[in-house]
Amino acid sequence: GKLLSMGVPPSFSATPPSTGVTGVFGGMRYLASAACYKALAAGSDSEDPKVLQLQAKALGTQSQAVQDALQELIDNYQYPDSILTPFFQYAYREIYSKMQLYSIPLAERKVNKTITAGTLTLDPVAQGILDMGSPILLEERNPGDVTDRWTQMVPVEAILSEMPDSTLGIYLWYSGVFWFRGATQDREIQVEYIASGNPPVSGTVGVDDSLNFLAARTAAMVLGTKGATLNSVANEALDEWISIKVRQMNTQVFRRPAFRTW
Question: pTM of the predicted model, to two decimals?
Answer without folding.
Answer: 0.57
